[in-house]
Design a protein that fits this description.
The complex is a heterodimer. Chain A is built from five helices and eleven strands. By secondary structure, chain A is of the alpha/beta class. Chain A has a single domain, classed as Rossmann fold. Chain A starts with a strand and ends with a helix. By secondary structure, chain B is an alpha+beta fold. Chain B has a domain of 232 residues: Phosphoribosyl-aminoimidazole Synthetase, Chain A, domain 2 (Alpha-Beta Complex), CATH 3.90.650.10. Helices cover 37% and strands 22% of the residues of chain B. In chain B, the strands form five sheets. Chain B has a seven-stranded mixed beta sheet. In chain B, a hairpin with a 6-residue loop joins strand 1 and strand 2. The chains are: A alpha/beta, B alpha+beta. At the A-B interface, helix 1 and strand 6 of A face helix 8 and helix 10 of B. Chain A: Keywords: ATP-binding, Cytoplasm, Glutamine amidotransferase, Hydrolase, Ligase, Nucleotide-binding, Purine biosynthesis. Chain A: GO terms for molecular function: ATP binding; glutaminase activity; phosphoribosylformylglycinamidine synthase activity.
Chain lengths: 226, 749
């Protein structure tokens, strides 16, 4: 049976088509999920894609977190369903308390779009096993609310438990604490990051690199061997 | 508050009306009375005043614009021409592409963020209304002097507005321009372009036909924003106790627009609309009169059914409101339920506000009482036409006689070196990444090329790799020296940029930014520029599909430089064959294509080193441009070049610097025989490009150029970590990078 990976579309989601394409290129069956539908349609994993769901009004991710689809995603993520939150998806995961911390406005106050170098710190999560720890990859970054923040105790815990999944290498583009670009939950099934691996899956398109493809091949391998 | 009904207007022929305050001329008001056979109601007066404004009626420009319809080149790619929301061209494989550039200049000066944001929103809805999915945006911008304090107010707001709106819509921003010149102080130019793609059978036109069909207004609620002169009418005629200071600049909500896009595309997919129009300038007045006028004529609208954000709005204000994120569709009755379902799915408010009728009048009612009864054509398409006087300015000859050839040139290698660094670090020639990095260029996952490439390029078919490219160009300095040539140079440069990326130029859209049409000097510039552009399009075989005119870009007596901005759209069969600007491979050979002459009039060098503007702009030979384009496209398709960069403002050294920095490689250059180093580096002769050729392709490439008669000179090799001009000077890449990339951040961060 082919692996089915769902991508949620909220009102204002922008990178859903890109995530669906990345899933397809990696070799799984992409499934569109709709924010009003609680049913996850038997998908094996879920991606919360980037964008400005609900216009980022109130706070990025704050409204989406209460949508019907998220009720099921939250419940099943706690039971082990692999979930990847990219950019706005990461913001939704923190709002849903599936991941700790929050994103603040970039320290320079501007939207920034750039090719960003990342260091993979944890290559043992459901979404990163095709990388090696310490590997540097380059994927696009594009956001205005991307500055990761959490209290010192949480940050220390994340570090101690190896839950910092990605760090910004060479430049910290937004003032994120401890250069954190992405984190995982303790079980390793829920991962969130601000940069966009789904924009780096084809030569020529976007940055012209395929450094992001590993996210999607990682999860497929995990699900196939599970 | 008494309602000025049609009946009341007929009974009170002598009631005073504020036509003058609304910007109408006496004879225009008289003509409205003649058309109607009575005085207009307040609502009718409001509609005519805004639809007959320069912005909506093109009354000063249309006698010149008609050349674009007369001098049409043989081109079988055109599917829909001028006159619709946007033109449509065939790009093959059953795909059609629609594109257009518009201005949002004045609002962006008053309120930079919202002015620029709603400029993006407006052009995107124009494209959507043609039945197309918007796939990319571009933004040609002009600002006052980079170091003027007001530029610090205007620029960051405009950039943030374009980013804030476009990024939230999920449209990649793939190109545009940023130019600084003191002439734009007080009149920044914010032009916005959009490209959309559809299948041939999905083209939608703005027309209302079929009596009984429903008129559906959907999208945002209508508020008091964007009401300009009409508040004069509202307060004077009816009630001066209510607040009249409404924002004259519209406020955008990109989230609502994103929903509107997805909702509209789903409606198109199910073929539920008979006609559609976006609401932009002049709001419902424009949409209802244009839809009715392009159809069979008759339409009845119940204005009190329009959903409002502000319940105190008068009917005149509702008709004029330029609230954003609204569309108007004509829907057959059996499709209305499904239409409403789709709107509900996307949380978009939709309301049946009227229907298409048998008659030929546009009739609008307010709580059962008739306030508008007009022939829609007279509002939308039969506005006044002016033959404004124009004459070659008395100062033009002196300006052209002030030859840039007499300016002091660098005397030795050291001076050349110093001037190169000054040039590539000057605000106009410096890297624009501080600005363009605030725009999302990756979203939708189809971006092949984006700024600082010569042209933006997006893939439109994942299976076949079919793609489209667009570049925008316009050099106001050239156009000031000679508007006819300046417009042709804008066309030539944009055409060259598209060809350099490997795409075949197909058609153009233009945004014509000028000063006041009431000044004969300006009107001459406009007449010359449109003539030049129309002639040029005929010669190049690229028709004008549509565009926009922005006049009155002037403060007091001082007009901006005439600034025709030309957007060329190209098609490429296989985006994997595209050519970037970066010199990425060491050892490759650099060739200069085209003829280099001593042409410095209007050049970046004359501006940066001498603060001079005079003489004649470079000569244009469009036959040569076409040949250069063919060579660049063939070389790209057949893998003969790995990089190409057009030569324009700043000349060869500017292009080589950009390509070296982008590729992270240096270059060793030799001044070709017959040229001096200064002319080689700084001349702005048109019809030129620099290419990077793999050694294995050298013979094949030079043979092709020779056989087709394009002059070509080997000028050096990609090598090392500095740019060296043999026998003159060398500059390390790191020094060039600091000069080129730090300027804008230093000024605006």
């Amino acid at each position: 049976m082919t692996t089915r990976i769902g991508v949620v579309t909220f009102p204002g989601t922008l990178d859903d088509q890109d995530s669906l394409r990345a899933v397809r290129i990696a070799g799984a069956e992409p499934v569109s999920l709709w924010h009003r539908d609680k049913d996850l349609h038997q998908v094996d994993a879920v991606i919360l894609a980037g964008g400005f769901s609900y216009g980022d009004y109130l706070r990025a991710g704050a409204i989406s977190r209460f949508s019907p689809v998220m009720e099921t995603v939250i419940e099943q993520a706690k039971a082990g369903l692999p979930v990847l939150g990219i950019c706005n998806g990461f913001q939704i995961l923190t709002e849903a308390h599936l991941l700790p911390g929050a994103m603040l406005r970039n320290n320079h106050l501007h939207f920034i779009c750039r090719d960003q170098k990342l260091r993979v710190e944890n290559a043992e999560t459901a979404w990163t096993s095709d990388y090696t720890a310490g590997q540097e990859i380059s994927v696009p970054l594009k956001n205005v609310d991307g500055r990761y923040t959490a209290d010192e105790r949480t940050l220390d815990e994340l570090e101690a438990e190896g839950r910092v999944a990605f760090r910004y290498a060479d430049v910290n583009p937004n003032g994120s604490l401890r250069d954190i670009a992405g984190i995982t939950n303790a079980a390793g099934n829920v991962v969130g990051l601000m940069p966009h691996p789904e924009h780096a899956v084809e030569p020529l398109i976007g940055t012209g690199r395929t450094d992001g493809l590993g996210f999607f091949t990682s999860i497929i391998k995990k699900l196939v061997t599970a | 508050m008494s309602l000025d009904t049609v009946k009341h207007a007929a009974e009170t022929p002598d009631a005073g009306q504020p036509w003058k305050e609304l910007g109408l001329k006496e004879d225009e008001y008289a003509r409205i009375r003649e058309i109607l056979g009575r005085r207009p109601t307040g609502a009718e007066l409001a509609m005519y005043s805004v639809m007959w404004s320069e912005h909506c009626s093109y009354k000063s420009s249309k006698v010149h614009l008609k050349q674009f319809g007369e001098k049409v080149p043989e081109n079988d790619a055109m599917l829909v021409g001028i006159g619709e929301n946007a033109g449509v061209v065939d790009v093959g494989q059953g795909y059609a592409v629609t594109f257009k550039v518009e201005s949002h200049n004045h609002p962006s000066y008053i309120e930079p963020y919202q002015g620029a944001a709603t400029g993006v929103g407006g052009i995107v809805r124009d494209i959507l209304a043609m039945g197309a999915r918007p796939i990319a945006v571009v933004d040609p911008l002009r600002f006052g002097a980079a170091d003027h304090p007001d530029t610090r107010r205007v620029l960051p707001g405009i950039v943030a507005g374009i980013g804030g709106y476009g990024n939230c819509l999920g449209l990649p921003n793939i190109g545009g321009e940023v130019v600084f010149d003191a002439c734009y102080q007080g009149n920044p130019l914010v032009n916005a372009g959009c490209i959309g793609v559809m299948k041939h059978e999905d083209i939608h036109l703005a027309q209302a036909s079929g009596p009984g069909n429903k008129v559906i207004l959907y999208g945002a609620r209508t508020g008091g924003d964007g009401i300009g002169g009409v508040s004069v009418l509202a307060s004077e005629t009816f009630d001066d106790t209510k607040p009249t200071k409404r924002p004259a600049v519209q406020v955008g909500d990109p989230f609502q627009e994103k929903l509107l896009i997805e909702c509209t595309l789903e409606i198109f997919k199910e073929k539920l609309v008979a006609g559609i129009q976006d609401l932009g300038g002049a709001g419902l007045s424009c949409a209802t009169s244009e839809l009715a006028s392009a159809g069979s004529g008759g339409m009845r609208v119940e204005l009190d059914t329009v959903p409002l954000r502000d319940s105190s709005l008068s009917p005149e204000e509702i008709l004029m409101s330029e609230s954003q994120e609204r569309m108007c569709a004509i829907v057959e009755p059996q499709h209305v339920d499904r239409f409403m379902e789709i709107c509900e799915k996307w949380d978009v408010i939709a309301t049946v506000i009227g229907e298409v009728t048998e008659g030929s009048q546009l009739e609008i009612f307010w709580h059962g009482e008739q306030i508008v009864d007009v022939p829609p054509r007279s509002v939308a398409h039969e506005g006044p036409t002016y033959h404004r006087p124009f004459a070659r300015p008395s100062w033009q000859d002196a300006l052209q006689a002030d030859d840039a050839g007499k300016l002091a040139r660098p005397a030795n290698g050291a001076e050349l070196r110093e001037q190169v660094l000054k040039l590539v670090g000057s605000p106009n020639q410096a890297s624009k990444s501080w600005i363009t990095d605030q725009y999302d260029r990756f979203v939708q996952g189809n971006t092949v090329l984006a700024m600082p490439e010569d042209a933006g390029m997006v893939r439109i078919d994942e299976t076949s790799n079919l793609g489209v490219a667009m570049a925008t160009d316009g050099n106001g300095r050239y156009a000031k020296l000679d508007p006819y040539t300046g417009a042709r140079l804008a066309l030539a440069e944009s055409y060259r940029n598209v060809a350099a990326s490997g795409a075949k130029p197909l058609a153009i859209s233009d945004c014509l930014n000028f000063g006041s049409p009431e000044d004969p000097d300006v009107m001459w510039q406009f007449a010359e520029a449109t003539r030049g552009l129309a002639d040029g399009c005929l010669e190049l075989g690229t028709p004008v599909t549509g565009g926009n005119v922005s006049l009155y870009n002037q403060t007091g007596e001082t007009a901006i430089h005439p600034t025709p901005v030309v957007a060329v759209l190209g098609v490429i069969d296989d985006v994997t064959r595209r050519t970037p600007v970066a010199f990425a491979e060491e050892g490759q050979l650099l060739y200069l294509l085209g003829d280099t002459r001593e042409e410095f009039g209007g050049s970046a060098w004359s501006e940066v080193i001498h603060q001079h503007l005079g003489g004649m702009p470079p000569e244009v030979d469009l036959g040569r441009e076409k040949l250069l384009g063919e060579i660049l496209i063939s070389a790209s398709r057949d893998g003969m070049v790995d990089a190409a960069h057009d030569l324009s403002d700043g000349g060869l050294i500017q292009a080589v610097t950009e390509s070296c920095l982008r590729g992270g490689n240096g270059a060793r250059l030799v001044v070709p025989e017959g040229l001096d180093a200064f002319t080689f580096l700084f001349s702005e002769s048109a019809g030129r490009a620099v290419v990077s050729v793999p050694r294995s392709e050298e013979l094949r490439f030079t043979d092709m150029c020779g056989a087709r008669g394009l002059p070509v000179a080997r000028i050096g090799v990609v090598d090392g970590e500095e740019i060296e001009i043999q026998g003159e000077f060398s500059i390390p890449l790191s020094e060039l990078r600091t000069a080129h990339e730090g300027t804008l951040e230093g000024l605006f961060a």
